[in-house]
Amino acid sequence: MSLSREQMASRVARELKDGYYVNLGIGIPTLVANYIPQGVEVMLQSENGLLGMGPFPTEETIDADMINAGKQTVTAITGASIFSSAESFAMIRGGHVDLTVLGAFEVDVNGDIASWMIPGKLIKGMGGAMDLVASAENIIVIMTHADKHGNSKLLEKCTLPLTGAGCIKQIMTDLAWLTVEDGAFVLRETAPGISIDEIRAKTAGKLIVPDDVREMTFS
Amino acid sequence: MSLSREQMASRVARELKDGYYVNLGIGIPTLVANYIPQGVEVMLQSENGLLGMGPFPTEETIDADMINAGKQTVTAITGASIFSSAESFAMIRGGHVDLTVLGAFEVDVNGDIASWMIPGKLIKGMGGAMDLVASAENIIVIMTHADKHGNSKLLEKCTLPLTGAGCIKQIMTDLAWLTVEDGAFVLRETAPGISIDEIRAKTAGKLIVPDDVREMTFS
Amino acid sequence: MAGFDKVVPDYAAAMAGLEDGMSVIAGGFGLCGIPEGLIAQIKRMGTTGLTVYSNNCGVDGFGLGILLEDRQVKKMVSSYVGENKLFEQQLLAGELEVELTPQGTLAEKMRAGGAGIPAFFTATGYGTPVGEGKESRCFNGVNCILEDAITADFSIVKAWKADRYGNAIYRHTAQNFNPMAATAGKITVMEVEEIVEPGELDPTGIHTPGIYVDRLIQGTFEKRIEQRTISASGGA
Amino acid sequence: MAGFDKVVPDYAAAMAGLEDGMSVIAGGFGLCGIPEGLIAQIKRMGTTGLTVYSNNCGVDGFGLGILLEDRQVKKMVSSYVGENKLFEQQLLAGELEVELTPQGTLAEKMRAGGAGIPAFFTATGYGTPVGEGKESRCFNGVNCILEDAITADFSIVKAWKADRYGNAIYRHTAQNFNPMAATAGKITVMEVEEIVEPGELDPTGIHTPGIYVDRLIQGTFEKRIEQRTISASGGA
Q1: Which residues of D touch C (CB under 8 A)?
Q2: Architecture of domain C19-118+151-223
Q3: Integer Cα distance of D124 and B132 in angstroms
Q4: Do D212 and A96 touch (CB under 8 A)?
Q5: Model-wide pTM > 0.80
Q6: The domain spanning residue B181 has which CATH number?
Q7: 3-state secondary structure string, A109-130?
Q8: Which of C44, C52, C49 is nearest to C24 (CA)?
Q9: Which subunits have 3 or more CB–CB pairs within 8 Å of chain C?
Q10: What does the longest C-alpha to C-alpha distance in chain C come to?
Q11: Does the structure's ipTM exceed the value 0.90?
Q12: pLDDT digit string, tens, across residues D71-84
């Protein structure tokens, strides 16, 4: 069975290392914060200008002046720092954030990502996504493997306008965990009960299936 | 008689306007702060990262962590702000400082200035001088009109390596107050008792003497 | 120090000189840290044909969104313009021009404008529509595009506390774009929650030195919340 | 939060990994705000062939000047290298290379290095020896040159107070180049006067967020004064 949003988030959370500064995008990426492994501590960066983002506030502590990049009211942990958006993106652009997790419409075998614009539909803007993908050494895309009509979102070449070129190296879908290497998707782990044939059928771009593909486990 | 250092500084101080943010270079320019006219208040910028520089400290208040761009111990006035050198030069480069006063070896009719390097002698460096001259809308150079051998320092073309090109518009010497316009020095005021002929003799670059040249007065 | 007293008597004085066709940089992120009273004054003035640089364009009926009601904005330069139906209508009708700019590039362009850096290279946007028509160059194996600085006729910013010299601090994440915006306007107008005495703010803790601020006014703020997210337990 | 504890046990750990031929960015202006203990450690280690980016090179016998005694520095990138006879000797003897860089450009190059901006245009230095061999371009009538960013193997900086996550503040004008230097090292080592508990520093008042700091050590500082200027009356 394909993975739930929560399962996808929990699998990605296993990639977190103690001491990582992490930027989590809106949507499923945000859920990753709920599955941080025991013994691992990360500091969340919010690109509007907050390092050390805490949980949502209570009715008593809610403050209009304390929001995250998704414009949600949040709190700051002890040891947080707050700064301008220029400083925040200096941090991001300068490669100081250890891991970025974000969603996408499409990715391709070259590591290109399209996540912000569907021609003919209303364009709302890229926000900080282009800055994040252009700069992070370490990016994980979380997305469904195919759209609701069954069309693959892992392509030989992105069809939508790009968010960034050649920047994606790891992908978490509802069917699999994959890496992007040398112009191909490499299958690393399958969702429990999902066959390699199904993944192959739903992957439009070149797919390499090594011998050591494992099945994910969830406790 | 040629002007003293103090007289040069006091004449330049008359160019200060209430509310000016001013950067004063090392040497005679520093003395300008002692002659600020009644009713005029200026804030002194020190390019290492201090806006609102105050007087030297006393024995009791001296602090190694509070210095100016000349590495002298100073104080900060009430309402001062202290920031990084990048922020300080952002202020300077962005044209936010109203007036810069600095010394020079040579200036020429194109507004070029040479102030930091004499080939063959040891080169100590330009410090912040190149940033200051490249950015300020409003720069006054204070210098002697001629060197100790009587050679003019107001030239048709600078002979020393430049600090900046085409940036000087006002010059205070020990003999005169001049502006630089359309490829010529324009004599505006003479020092008391100094003849226009003497100034002409000591100005190697093209000199324009308008009809309304005045003699400076000092109280 | 009369020459350094930036306090103006009213909103009319704060925005005096703003004319049709001018450009305005506005601080704020979403509805957080926006100069509510200065935006309201622009609406009252009825100035039209404005080019506005701001990360967002408010929402229907609040923030910069209110300037759309009388079609005062000709062009928006923003990274995200989602939450606004009137915006959508005017955009689709061709009444409003939009230049989408990545959030970090927008922040850096304002910072560059204030800092006298006319242009800089960045990897952000290379190979995307943002990079089209822009000069590109490879540095250490990373493809970059050349982005130019933003300056404007006016900057309008919102701070928490400022002294009358314009030395200001921002509260929490209401800082966002305000410090850069403050540096990049020919005339920078700052609206604050509280005007304090000079010396009350720690000189080394000042976010915006007064040299950047031309006019200062104390306002009152609704501080509307765009997404009210609550955790009863304090857990996310 | 063990993963974020940047405190190292001693100076050997602070500078571990520094090797001959590496590059080092050092904060400080003159003798103000310099990482005295980290410089002393480099002298103890005897590392040679260093390229050092710092506004100045200390004085004879203090600050970066002590690294000249055993000829540890191959090249200095600075804006002003005046007060140092040993420096002068080695320079004239061709034992030391110097690249003079305008002070503001040096600060901006470090800031750019840390901020992922590979290059920027500036008017500073156009038409001077600094601009020779560099690309130039005119923006709005102002001639500019293209300057590239500075990054280095190590950055050594000095702050006043920091918590163990590396969040730091600087004291008075000892800030100077330290915040930019802190962002531009592959490994950034910070020496502080006092290590405080997380939460003691106001989050919005932090000058250097801990994300830039890899190692943190508490030092003791002589804080030598280069030009002791005194006014008995308090007048200049």
Answers
A1: 108, 112, 115-123, 139-140, 142, 144, 148, 169-172, 175, 202-205, 207
A2: 3-Layer(aba) Sandwich (3.40)
A3: 8
A4: yes
A5: yes
A6: 3.40.1080.10
A7: CCCCEECCCCCCCCCCCCCCHH
A8: C52
A9: A, B, D
A10: 55
A11: yes
A12: 999 999 999 998 78
